[in-house]
Amino acid sequence: MTRAVTEARQRLDQIEAQLFRADIEVNSESGGHGVQVSVIDPAFLPQRPVPPGTVTLGLIFLSAAAVLGALLMLVRATLDDRVFDARDLGGALLVLAQVPRHRERKHYVPG
After folding, report:
1. Binning pLDDT at 50, 70 and 90, where does residue 71 land?
2. Which residues contact 86 (CB under 8 A, 6 or more apart)?
3. 6-29 pLDDT, tens per residue?
4. Is residue 35 within 8 Å of 28, Cβ to Cβ?
5. Is the pTM of this model over 0.90?
6. What gap in Å lies between CA 111 and CA 108, rounded to an integer?
7. To the nearest 10°, the Cα dihedral for 20, 23, 29, 32?
8. What is the DSSP-derived secondary structure letter of residue 48?
């Protein structure tokens, strides 16, 4: 039964292809153009999808790494509990003292 259905579908496809060719010939002759068109390789559905190229895969992984890095950076910045200046406390605590940042001073040595 399956073989008969397959053969019938193939026969239908052949008839449709012949009808299409005949229709093209009639239209070209009636239009006065008289162009001969021959289909060398008819169109068909691919058996399996074409995989993306190496450049496409590289761009996908690069963008995924950038997004993951940005998310990781935001998470780490949110969870960071170090205090660098009074603004980091957010007014929740009273600042008793503020230690200035260490800056190296160049001493003038008379020579």
Report:
1. very high
2. 95, 98
3. 999 999 999 999 999 888 877 776
4. yes
5. no
6. 9
7. -90
8. S
In whole angstroms, give the CA distance from residue 111 to residue 106. Answer: 15
Residue 47, CA distances (Å) to 1, 44, 52 in order: 24, 9, 16
Q: Tokens 């008839």, residue?
A: 15
Q: Which residue has the tokens 């205090």?
A: 83
Distance, in Å, from the CA atom of 111 to the CA atom of 94, rounded to the nearest integer, reads: 48
Q: How far apart are CA 42 and CA 20, in angstroms?
A: 12
Give domain limits for the chain. Answer: 2-39+52-78
- What is the rounded CA–CA span in Å between residue 15 and residue 22? 10
Q: Is 101 in contact with 95 (CB distance < 8 Å)?
A: no
